[in-house]
Structures are given as structure tokens and as C-alpha cells.
Design a protein that fits this description.
Order of helices and strands: HHHHHHHH
Oligomer: single chain
Strand content: under 5%
Helix content: 55-70%
Number of helices: 8
Largest sheet: none
Shape: globular
């Protein structure tokens, strides 16, 4: 058996081979290569950093457990991202009975005009997304960011397609209202959620 090259110089395919051969250094490099991006994914789904870290940890346990089954038909990052989204969905399902969506707190209609996010910082947007009710946050992320259809979201979250559409529309209205308040407060010099 020939020695495995240092993980610092391995391309993705060689890194996968080294991980599958049991190299702890390669496994560490795989984690370090993708953990930052995946933490950003987890933060969008979680309400707190602590919750996002739990999802990230659960996701990487799943990655390493299922790595032998990865068929290399898609980019590794895409495969890991799907695992993180599924870990976030599992976390949501565990917590769902504890958190009800209050229908009275949120607007029912969505204005037809589009709004842009280009003028806002990542942290501002992340905070606004994290402040959404858990189901709204999940649906918004799955549809607007991950690109799932409402039918797929319904299946993943065990809700109807119509419920997914409705919750996405409500999430957009809430975010739009928060952005309008942020803009108004920027002009006045203060902001409160």
C-alpha cells in the first residue's frame, strides 16, 4: 500500500479516498474545508448559534457515516449541503411540537412588488431570518435559498403544498416589513427589531 499524500495538498477526489481509507487528517481537512460554509447554512435554519452548532455536528456525523455511499455524481459540497439541510429539518421536527405558529401575529397578504436585499448586510439579514417563526424560517430557506419547490417542501415538512406557499408568502411579508423598518430607522439613526 502506497502512502497517502498529506491532506493539505489533496484535491476533492483524493481527499475522499483518504477519508474512506480512514485517515483522520483527511477527515479533519474535509471538516475544515466545509464547516464554515455549512455553519452558514445551519445558521439560516437555526434560531441560535447553539442550535446551529448542534445541527452542524449532527450533519457531519451523518456525512462521515454515509461517506462510503457517496457516489460522486454531484459535487461533494452540494451533497454535504443537502445533509445539513436534512439535519436542520430533523431538528425542526424534534422541536415542532414545542413551537406553534401564531396566526394572529403575522400579516396574511403579500404585496406584489419585489424587494431587493442588496443594500443589507449578511448579519442583518441573518438576524431577520432567525427571528421568523420556525416554520416560516424553514419554508423560506428551503424555497428562496435552497430552491426546493413547494411540493417538495410539503413532503419534507409533512405539510400541504398550499401551506408551504402560504407560509413562504407570510415569511416574505414579515421580512419586507422588517426591511422597511430597518430603512426607516437607518434614516433616523436607530434600529430595533
Amino acid at each position: 500500500m502506497r502512502p497517502i499524500a498529506s491532506p493539505a495538498i489533496l484535491d476533492e477526489s483524493a481527499l475522499l479516498d483518504a477519508c474512506l481509507a480512514g485517515s483522520r487528517l483527511a477527515q479533519k481537512q474535509l471538516y475544515e474545508r466545509f464547516s464554515g460554509k455549512m455553519m452558514a447554512v445551519c445558521m439560516r435554519y437555526a434560531q441560535t448559534t447553539f442550535e446551529a452548532e448542534d445541527v452542524l455536528q449532527e450533519g457531519f456525523v451523518t456525512v462521515f457515516r454515509n461517506l462510503p455511499g457517496f457516489r460522486r455524481e454531484c459535487p461533494l459540497e452540494f451533497w454535504i449541503r443537502r445533509i445539513m439541510v436534512n439535519a436542520a429539518l430533523r431538528q425542526h421536527r424534534r422541536n415542532a411540537p414545542l413551537v406553534a405558529v401564531s396566526e394572529g401575529e403575522y400579516p396574511e397578504t403579500l404585496a406584489d412588488e419585489e424587494f431587493t436585499l442588496a443594500n443589507y448586510g449578511y448579519e442583518e439579514l441573518l438576524t431577520m431570518i432567525q427571528d421568523l417563526a420556525p416554520r416560516y424560517r424553514m419554508v423560506f430557506n428551503l424555497f428562496a435559498i435552497e430552491g426546493y419547490s413547494h411540493k417538495e417542501i410539503g413532503e419534507l415538512m409533512q405539510i400541504s403544498e398550499g401551506t408551504s406557499k402560504s407560509q413562504y408568502a407570510r415569511a416574505r411579508v414579515i421580512l419586507k416589513n422588517k426591511l422597511e423598518r430597518l430603512d426607516a430607522h437607518r434614516h433616523n439613526g436607530t434600529f430595533s427589531r
